[in-house]
Amino acid sequence: MSGSERVVLCVEDDAIVRMFVTDALADAGFHVLEAGSAAEALVSLAARGDVHALVTDVDMPPGMNGFALAHRVSEQWPGIAVVVLSGCLSPSPGDLPPGSTFLEKPVSEARLIAEVTRACGARGAPQAEDWNQHADAA
Question: What pTM, to 2 d.p., does this model score?
Answer without folding.
Answer: 0.87
